[in-house]
Amino acid sequence: MTLFNHSRRRFLTQSGLGFAGLTALPSLAKAMEGMGMHNQHTGDMMMPKITPNKASPNFHPDVELELFCKPAAIQILDGSRTNLLQYTAKLIKGEKNTLTDLPNSYLGSIIRLQKGQKVRIHLHNGLSQPTVTHWHGLHVPQVMDGHPMYFIEPNETLVYEFEVLNRASFNLYHPHQHGATAKQVYFGLAGGIIINDEEEAALELPAGEYEIPLVIQDKQFDSDNQLVYAPMMHSKMTGFTGDKILVNGRPNFHLDVASRAYRLRVLNASTSRIYKLAWNDGMPVTVIGVDGGLLEKPEVKSYVMLAPGERLDVWADFSGRNEGTELTLKSLAFAGVLPKMGMGMHKGGIPVGSEYPICTIRVTKKVSDSPKLPAQLSKFHHYEISDTVNPTNPLPIGISEAPMSMLLNGRPYEFNNPLPSERVKVGSIQLIEIFHAHGAGGMKMDDGMKRGGMGMMGGGMGMMDLSMAHPIHLHGQQFQIVSRSFSGDSTAYDTVRDGFIDSGLKDVVLVMPMERVKIIKPFQDFKGLFMYHCHNLEHEDMGMMREFSVE
Ligand code: C2O
Ligand code: CU
Ligand code: CU
């Protein structure tokens, strides 16, 4: 194990900007320079370079596949192809349906696994920059979790071997390269993982052509159809947003369906955009599952919030609808997730919290038969606060916001340097409280100035409230949401509050300004370093990430 210093120079030479198309865009190159791992907090951090894990002769996989990360050029818009980065997979061993490609998409293949299977994945880095892949949602040992310390250089291969311990659920895989997660995801590196198990199979939910992944992202294109990713000071702080909504990698996504029930597996793989999903004709949104799999009972909502990294399992019943009926899945208007100055400063694009369509669905076939929605979907153990080792003393996840430093527990990301409250016993069940650390009103201008960087904001804004919503993600086992409490003026909060699904197993929770969320999380089976961070990926890369050391 060798140690080196993550200097900016290293980032620039090793990242190589990924592919040729990018170097033609000087503003992008400049923006990416600013996005790197070099900032006042993480720039001098020591991160080990670990020899990539190799296949173990004692591990006998049921499923084995190769996963390549490499540059690609895909036709997305009319005219030039778009240069991006792509996961492609090749099955070595396993059932034929292990891998399914989304049609005409840059997104990685959907990987289908069964609970209990042993899986080996050979990750090949065909990029010109370092990367590492994380299996978001999967409960795996530290060395298989895609912690940034396991990054591989171009042309290196990293072998993952793990058993699928999770229950049936829809998860995702994406890079977790230190300081470059947002950029690598934005340029195309993301894919879905569907886990099945017997409990779920017994329900005979819509499957095959009736089970449809909907991966939602937003991107910005230049006049030559190339991706623009230029998070400047302000958009780093709020998160970078695009001016086109893509579903499964396609603009103006459209689905033809029969008049029956479908199962929509929805994933928000945007770097920062939050959606408020609803059907345009007032049909309620019937949710049967979230991040960690099926709910016990369906929840019927007029709208549902979906933050980056979150998943939704939606029962969409088009029974009785006539041929030719069209429906739109929309994002409805909402407020309160961005700093008060956020909306006004947004240039162009589709403002977060405005109303816009996500995709359209047309009934093209009338059928008479449809499966029925089960009243009971699953069963799982519900933790009580009294099951935790710290019922009166929750582990804190304190969010603090300043223009150049998005922090957790007052600290930026530091490799292997846990606070006392970040050391937990393996096997323990912990009560955790996520809150805004700077009081109900967020941070004021003068605090921000002391922390640095405020001078770059341009003057004349006076006092401002930087507090915003953060989708907080914890690696490892899923958690249960115990309570949310909100204090303050609820005008904005009222536009989102009915859209949270807190009854299921979660690994991302959207925490609104002035909100405190209590969760219970088990830390079973594996010792080691497990990240927790904001899944607004620009925030993550700015250092809004910490680790639990499970000991
Ligand atoms: Cu989806 Cu640590 O991330
Ligand atoms: Cu994760
Ligand atoms: Cu955040």
Write the layout of secondary structure elements.
Elements: E1 2-5, H1 8-15, H2 20-23, H3 26-34, E2 46-49, E3 63-74, E4 82-93, E5 99-100, E6 110-114, E7 118-125, E8 133-136, E9 157-163, E10 169-175, H4 181-186, E11 191-196, H5 198-201, E12 211-221, E13 227-228, H6 233-238, E14 244-247, E15 250-251, E16 254-258, E17 261-268, E18 275-279, E19 285-290, E20 293-301, E21 304-306, E22 311-317, E23 326-331, H7 342-345, E24 356-365, E25 395-402, E26 405-408, E27 423-424, E28 428-436, H8 445-451, E29 470-474, E30 479-486, E31 505-506, E32 508-511, E33 515-523, E34 528-534, H9 537-542, E35 545-550
Parallel strand pairs: 3-7, 6-11, 12-17, 16-24, 25-28, 27-35
Antiparallel strand pairs: 1-2, 3-4, 5-6, 7-9, 8-10, 10-11, 12-13, 12-14, 14-15, 17-22, 18-21, 18-23, 19-20, 19-22, 23-24, 25-26, 28-33, 29-32, 29-34, 30-31, 30-33, 34-35
This protein binds CU-O-CU linkage (C2O) and copper (II) ion (2 copies).
The site of one copper (II) ion has 4 residues, from β8.
